[in-house]
Amino acid sequence: MDEILNEKEKAAALKKIQLFSELSDKELHQINSQIALKIFRKNETILYEEDTSAFMYIILSGKVKVIKTTGEGKEIILAMHNAGNFFGEMSLIDGKTSPASVVAIEDSIISIISKNDFYSLLFAHKKVFENLLKILSSRLRSSWDTIKLLNFNSASQRIRTLFFMLSEEHGKRTADGIILNANLSHKEISEMTGLTRETVTRVMDKWQKEGEIAILKNKSIRLNPAFHKRSDLKDLQD
Q1: Distance from first CA to last CA of the chain, Å, rounded?
Q2: What is the radius of gyration, based on Cα positions, of the chain?
Q3: What is the rounded distance in angstroms from the CA atom of residue 24 to the CA atom of residue 9?
Q4: 104 CB-contact burial (10 Å; exposed 0-12 / middle 13-18 / buried 19+)
């Protein structure tokens, strides 16, 4: 399993993770033995909702989605995580099952840390503990934004709020606007906003015609300056 990356490559990958970003090269090499690696293929489930997890997972490369299935069998995407993000730590802290399943959107290299090693890292490295608190606080704020999004009656407001949220984590500023490096399909946007795919297509087609957004060749979405100038009042009228 650990042959996926050699020791030097593994340490370099961990250095890019916010949780470990302030550790020295020596400290990173010291924790190498506490972290196993595994490849998860596209559409493979990494963490099941009903499982009581004894591990936390860190994305070294690839992309995953956090999903919740409703009683009617509809899949709702609660979050999407790229390289650098982690999940499963809540189960290690409170001992409860994860409130959602995690599925690989593309082939991903995941580092896996057991509960004992997780606490060992927190107690041995104050910087890791402090970074964990900052990250969890950021996630809590993001959860509040998601609740706010789902309370909007207007489809335009929901999608606009989602794009603003995604721009914080996945946005790249350019001279022409902010590019969302998330490559979201209309189906995924519908699952993240609780709307139908047809509604998402209608709203986004309207925005494209009005010059608020542009779909680039690589399927990324660019939020043009007009997107940010649009008022919530006009959204309510859509």
Answers
A1: 52
A2: 19
A3: 15
A4: buried
Distance CA 126, CA 113 (A): 17
Does the pTM exceed 0.85? no
Burial of 84 (0-12, 13-18, 19+ CB in 10 A): middle
Q: pLDDT tens digits for 24-82?
A: 988 988 888 888 899 999 999 998 877 767 888 999 999 998 888 877 777 788 888 88
Total Cβ atoms within 10 A of residue 46 = 19
Q: Which residues pair with 36 in a beta bridge?
A: 112
User: Letter for the amino acid at 65?
Assistant: K
The two three-digit tokens of residue 116, written as one number: 């004992």
Of the candidates 58, 52, 124, 54, the residue with the CA atom closest to the CA atom of residue 86: 58
SS3 85: coil
Which helix (H) or strand (E) segment holds residue 96: the answer is none
Helix axes of 126-150 and 155-170: crossing angle, nearest 10 degrees: 160
Whole-number Å distance between alpha carbons of 10 and 234:
49
Sheet with 108-114: list strands edge to edge: 36-40, 108-114, 55-61, 86-87
